[in-house]
Amino acid sequence: MSSILSLNNISKTYGRIRALREVSFEVPSGSVFGILGPNGSGKTTLLSIVTDVLAPNQGNFTWFGNAPSGKQRRNVGTLLETPNFYHYLSGRHNLEIAAAIKQKPVGDIERVLKLVRLYERRDSKFQSYSLGMKQRLAIASCLLGDPPVLVFDEPTNGLDPSGIAEIRQLIIELSREGKTIILASHLLAEVEKVCTHVAILQQGILIKSGDVTTALNQEEWLEASSADPDKLRKVLEQLPGLKNILVSGNLFQVYFNTPLPDPAWLNRHCFEQGIVLSLLQTGRKSLELAFIELTNHVSN
Amino acid sequence: MIMREYLNTLGIEWLKLKYYRTFWILLGVVAVCIPAFNYVIYDITDNSFPKINGQSLLGNPFSFPNVWSTVPYNAGILVFIPAILIITLFTNEYTFRTHRQNVIDGWSRSRFIHVKLTEVFILSLFLTGIVILTCLYFGFITRKPMQPKAGWEQLRFILFYFIEMLDYSLIAVILSLLIRRAGLTMGIFFLYMIIEQFVVALGRNKYKVTWVDYLPEEVSDRLIPQPFAKRILTPGNNELWEKHVPLYLSISVLYILLFIFFVSWRFRKADL
Predict the structure, then answer these.
(1) Rounded CA gap, B92 and B13, in Å?
(2) Using the beta-carbon criterion (under 8 Å), do A103 and B15 form an inter-chain contact?
(3) Predicted ipTM?
(4) Which of A47, A55, A168, B171 has the least CB density, counted as fewest CB within 10 Å?
(5) A82 part of contact set with chain B, CB < 8 Å
């Protein structure tokens, strides 16, 4: 998988504050790449650098394997922090300016406005839009010309629950189309639902990066319960590759050093041992929990 | 190819202005103020001073060829109005953060700032055009023997007005770039105008120093000396002024080049 964006030792300081410290990672083509971190961790600073809004004090980066330039940025739809438009112009006129700068056809404006459900309000001035509408117009602007890469910094800011769900669905659909999406967010549940890769920042330091499961060590587990918990426990303790068992009443949460056993096999195995399972399910440590464990570990 | 791209960029700038009502109102105010203010001065010189042999005590400042320096001089007094327009256009980009978005969307920083500077250049040219039309209007209505044909002696004042406009406009651009907020920038711009005049008056009259004549605004003001009753009010000054014109012109142009360099450098290097 080739790299769309490659960062090499990026550092940025604001006076005495070190916003980013030697950050390096690669964004693979076709991935939904989440940049995670609490507020103030350097996510927006990082995205500002790769969009030429800020200059790094150290390090460099490439887009599509080339040195950054306006030509490359025209193929990246970017929403950075807030929607930035001319308040006195209508949504349509604002998109005409964006399309002209990006050198994309004006004819595409109608499509993107319909996609974000702003077509009916296309001739209203930007200043009359609600926060959610402004955010949707910014997303429409990103989609102009159908760019292969999208950069979204907190894309669901200001959106209501249905708006959040719509954007999430849009990101999933765009990803299915093969687009690379770079998504900065502090909303872990939001990221968990869409991201294939992550980079985790804390106080400007890159803690981890890579594919979601590996980078976050999101351990998988298996849960089981039965009317005869003692007998079930004995069977579970005999399973190969067992790491540990957490007990909560009649419920056993089982962790393994090896990949999880096939649930169908386990069900049959328990039945052969005379145990009827009343519950059998697999799961994964939540992103939130994994993130907290990881950031706490680094802080300590 | 480069020319076509540059024209496209200007076209995008036009999209920003085309539906911006404040821009058109301010431009209209500037365009109307230049002839209107000159008319007020014309009316005063024509009717409020005693006439000797049918001629005003202040001479014939609105007749050819004097009108070529009188109108630019009066228009120079109003130079703060286009400065307000320029400050509005520049600080809007910061207020709406569209300067960032234009770069994010694919403009280079150089392209953004150069097109803005071109806008200032075009605005200065437009106002110089208004000044020329105003000169022609007053030259013709004063019913003096017609001499609309002017040589370098007269037309140079049109060039000097253009340079004065650019000089003041670029000071407005620098302040907009550094301060970023419209109200504060306008306040500082006016404050700077007052402070510079104060320093010039103090330096020239109290401390008898000449370097104050070469401060950014003063030196371009000096390109167009006051045109009224020169023989009575400033006798002998004309020869001295003629001697200094090349220096005033060179320093004014140098300031313009320095300001353009600073603005370009600052926008290319600063965090947006």
Answers:
(1) 13
(2) no
(3) 0.89
(4) A55
(5) yes
